[in-house]
User: What shape does this take?
Amino acid sequence: MSNIWLVSQRELASFFYSPIAYVVLGAWSLIMGVFFSGAFTNYALISMQIMRNPRAAEQLNLTPTSAILGPVFSSTTIVLLFVTPLLTMRLFSEEKKQGTMELLLTYPLRDGEMLIGKFLSALLMYALMLVLTLIYPVILSAFVEVEWPVIASGYLGMFLMGSAFLSIGLFASSLTSNQIVSAMVAFMVLLVSFILDFLSASVGETLGAVLRHLSMGIHLRNFIQGIIDTRDVIYLVNVNILCLFLAMRSLEYYKWRG
Amino acid sequence: MIRVEGLTKFYGTVPGIQDISFNVSKGEILGFLGPNGAGKSTTMRILTGYMPATSGKVTVADHDVSRSPLEVQKLLGYLPENNPLYPEMTVRDYLDYVASLKGVRRADRKGAIDRVVDDCGLEQVAARVIGHLSKGYRQRVGLAQALVNDPPVLILDEPTSGLDPAQIIEIRNLIRGLKGSRTIILSTHILPEVNLVCDRVVIIHHGRLAAEGALDTLASDVQKDEIVRVSAIGSADSVRSRLSAVEGVQSVNAQEDGPGGEVRFDVHAERGREIRPALAAAVSDAGAQLTELHQARLTLEDLFVKIIGGEHGDGNEGNNE
Assistant: This one.
């Protein structure tokens, strides 16, 4: 257990030794700020139009929480497609390239401890990123009444999905010693898993349903609306576990091959 | 302390090492010799539990490496060939990280780090970032991380490769300073290093054990006769005839002439016979001036060529247990 934390600590420190942490956090804050202010202005415009047409208001049933933070969360998933591979690309690739993997594997440390430690460091970075965005609901609460349970559900969804993304990135990183390849593989896998939803329209009904369920993006929708569906939770957690398992196998293969 | 039995590793279908067996007893320094690509690093990597063997067995202090790698790894200090380090960390942070991973208790950690910093001469750079250090210092950091848990077993893969002569001497002295308390396996391809540091050597070639034993024994087994190199300024013919007349001399082979009219000969004599004073006298009898006279020692190259050339067969089974 303490070994996991040791590995995480070093990885976290590494994020901040390298420019990655600053670039990611900076870009993330900027983009989230743009999204939020966009959604906020948009909501202001819509509500102004609705005031002239009360009947439309009843049909739309817009609450500030779902109308502002909903779009922000959905757009964020697109950003995550780019950002999470940046967080995970170096975790194994860099150690392989530098050769420090060889030393790490000869310390009295279980493979699983190393793997979870590395994953945890990326997850903590991601959690920090999410925490930074909490400022937007807080700002919102200054102007309107905010439904905090819905926001909590949204954040839970974001956390679970980000965690699944990171596990995919970690697996990609365990496959190669090249950070760029690692990031590209992770990005491609994430992108494909995301657009499965679009593909489902053009194939048969059964296959379409399967593709829709496999698609990543679709599993966030309920969370954003404040619905915690066990199907979504199980899907995201399973993806997470599967990828960590695959990364573990890949690590064993790496050792076996020498 | 370390027991290696029938160790074999295949990379796909390519054999890395085949059927390597040897023992290292406690407190011994074993030199691991072989040309590049012979399988030295492969063997060491299996010993450290980094890589599993295809077949064969390694036990360190009665722990099987493949069954209980963690137990073995707690006893080990390992310095890989290319000395990988985290360039972004400071020396002290790095040593602290390694010490924690190796299970050095928090209370003992500072003392352990201070000790290796001192032993490895890192006082001046302890607060600096590893990436900014010179190669010599990095090598010492590598050694320090291997030593930080005070391990009873040290595995050092070419610890002096790529260093300048002064640094080589420093590192070598450092390793010699560790002698006695620890069991050490040291791979190298520099013969003087082996002479100075190791009690015994294992020579591998093409992934197979070529010879094992004390270096002197190996050398004398291979070297059938005594060779004395004689250089003198004077007439080649008369020097040669005088040298040949010395008692015990078997043959005199002329070598390439040196500058300034120097003539050189290799004089072969029976093994164990001291003929140097007689040779010196013979040279002056010939009216020549002696410029050089020394007993030629077998170099690692000679030893390799002879052992690997098949003259020595499978090597003597020198078991120092």
User: Anything to note?
Assistant: The CA atoms of residues 87 and 130 of chain B lie 5 Å apart. Chain B is about 35% helix and 30% strand.
